[in-house]
Write a structure and sequence with these properties.
By secondary structure, this protein is α/β, with parallel strands linked by helices. Among the domains are: 1-80 and 499-540, Urease, subunit C, domain 1 (Roll), CATH 2.30.40.10; 89-209, Diaminopimelate Epimerase, Chain A, domain 1, CATH 3.10.310.70. It is 31% helix and 24% strand. The chain contains 17 helices and 24 strands. The strands form four sheets. Strands 8, 15, 16, 17, 18, 19, 20 and 21 form an eight-stranded mixed beta sheet that branches. A six-stranded mixed beta sheet has the order 3-2-7-22-23-24, with no helix packed on it. 50% of the residues are buried.
């Protein structure tokens, strides 16, 4: 009996010694891992911010002793969602401005600006964003007369939804020293009957930007933290911010280092000479939460404001071709400089002419034996012959909701022939093998579930059009989910640390209200991120 008792004690001691203490176990879940070798699982084990194990036989959990156990009640769990193209800081700033998204007339805009001014009577510079004349009954650009009459002594700057046009009043024009004689290289200063209308497109907007008062550090931090809260509520754990200044990047880094900002940020450096010189000389900046290794360049403007550079004239405006925001020679010179560094070049290109310029510049400097993963952001309207030039070196980064927002008027701008090379997501995926998906928020809504819905249905939330806009370009649900997780991670050179749920990767994941791969299409826009985790810690 003594021998038997000793054996049992030794067995118990032995079994206890093999139990691994971990921080968190999530069990009884419907897990889509995005790992082709192990696509489905029911449990996830987390320790020291990383994933320790993922599997389906929950008897294996007997080997772990967890500080916290979550029963997912068979709900769907996916990797933390990555928005491949957005304006994270801009989203936060928008919370401090007049929200004009969804306005259906100029009169509604005026009403919202008046209400904002009444709530903020001491504000001498009124900023707003979100108007889109394409949504109005009269689709012409607005003019400034009403703003002049209502706000003669306060500057008013109202940004179009795409960020490529301003409507400003005379006070703002005076502060920016803009007159009818001011040159408009790389954009437009719109006039009517020889007088300024108050509408500025692309490069002339910079004159106004220079006179907008700088925010205090406290206001900047408030903007970043508010944006983080919104993103976490939608299951976003990494955001690719498409254009940040050095000062904002350094502020994000300091807040992340102090633990005041937990979201992960892939920061594209805005194309200002001083900032680009600083980061290219410094080299890649990489921490657990920040990745700075790319430069954001603007080739042209936007289609909605007719600033996208097209090879042939706009179908709805004779002898108008849009404009290159950055001259062709400058794009080629910058491409060579970035190619000589470790950085990526990520270029906004909307029109088929701009896309052709960028593709040519990329091909000229990229060597076939290197792994650079340069991106064309938007890749929106492309000559069918030029689509062939995308591949493993040159990746498209697209926003599915742009297709469903623009479909009402895109063919009017482009014509029936040119529309065939627009919003061609499935074709671009076939050429490049990966397709990072984003929202471009706050141009579009933050919700990645609207991104998913638009990608797989090509419809608006009312189900229009039947069958989908250019339905042959739909993505499968599995492709759309990879486009929001693994493929953006790959495009950021981060596929070894995030984008799928595998041992050794960050424990960034989301528990959803619905099965995103099996839900009916009309349920997709209303999916909720019930719980969001970053590094194994619940942040929403």
């Amino acid at each position: 009996m003594r021998v038997l008792f000793s054996f049992i004690v030794m067995l118990l001691i032995s079994s206890c010694s093999t139990t691994e203490v971990v921080d968190l176990i999530v069990r009884n879940a419907n897990i889509y891992t995005m790992d082709d070798e192990n696509p489905n699982a029911t449990y996830l084990v987390v320790n020291n911010e990383k994933i320790v194990a993922v599997g389906s036989d929950e008897n294996d959990l007997d080997g772990y002793q967890a500080k916290e156990i979550i029963d997912a009640d068979q709900k769907t769990l996916i990797p933390g969602i990555i928005d491949a193209h957005c304006h994270f800081y801009g989203l936060g700033l928008n919370q401090q401005r007049v929200d004009l998204v969804g306005t259906l007339s100029y009169e509604e805009i005026i009403s919202k600006v008046q209400a904002f001014e009444q709530e903020n009577p001491d504000m001498q510079f009124i900023l707003g964003r979100g108007w889109d004349q394409n949504d109005w009954a009269v689709k012409d650009f607005p003019t400034k007369e009403k703003l002049d009459a209502l706000f003669p002594d306060k500057a008013v700057v109202l940004e179009r939804v795409d960020g490529h046009a301003y409507l400003v009043n005379q006070k703002a024009l005076d502060l920016a020293n803009i007159t009818v004689k001011t040159p408009s290289n790389g954009g437009a200063i719109l006039k009517k009957n020889g007088k300024l209308t108050g509408v500025l497109v692309d490069n002339p907007m910079q004159r106004v930007d220079r006179v907008i008062p700088e925010l205090s550090r406290a206001e900047q931090i408030q903007a970043l933290k508010k944006a983080e809260d919104i993103c976490f509520s939608y299951g976003l754990t990494t955001v690719n911010d498409a254009g940040l200044s050095r000062s904002t990047i350094e502020l994000i880094d300091s807040l992340q280092q102090s633990g005041d900002l937990k979201i992960r940020v892939y920061a594209m450096v805005s194309n200002s000479p001083r900032d680009v010189n600083h980061f290219l000389d410094k080299g890649i900046l990489k921490t657990d939460r920040l990745n700075v290794r790319s430069v954001k360049v603007y080739a042209d403007g936007a289609l909605g404001s007719r600033g996208a550079a097209l090879k042939e004239e706009y179908s709805d405006q004779h002898n108008h071709f849009g404009a290159m925001v950055t001259p062709v020679a400058a794009i080629e010179q910058l491409a060579q400089r970035i190619a000589d560094s470790e950085y990526q070049m990520n270029t906004h290109a909307i029109g088929d002419s701009a896309n052709a310029v960028v593709l040519r510049a990329y091909q000229k400097v990229l060597k076939s034996d290197t792994d650079r993963r340069w991106k064309i952001e938007h890749a929106q309207v492309i000559d069918l012959d030029d689509i062939e030039n995308f591949g493993t070196q040159i990746l498209p980064s697209v926003q599915p909701t742009h297709a469903t927002s623009d479909m009402y008027w895109a063919e009017d701008r482009l014509g029936s022939d040119r529309i065939e090379g627009a919003y061609a997501f499935k074709t671009l995926l076939e050429k490049s093998g990966v397709l990072p998906l984003g929202t471009d928020f706050p141009v579009e809504q933050v919700s990645p579930f609207l991104t998913f819905y638009a990608a797989v249905t090509r419809q608006d939330t009312a189900g229009y059009p039947e069958g989908g806009f250019m339905e042959s370009e739909k993505l499968s649900p599995e492709q759309a989910l990879k486009g929001m997780t693994l493929w953006p991670a790959y495009s950021n050179f981060e596929e070894e640390e995030k984008g799928s749920l595998e041992p050794g990767k960050w424990a960034d994941f989301v528990i959803l209200s619905k099965d995103i791969l099996k839900a009916a299409s009309d349920e997709l826009p209303n999916i909720q991120a019930e719980k969001t985790f970053v590094a194994g810690v619940q942040v929403h």
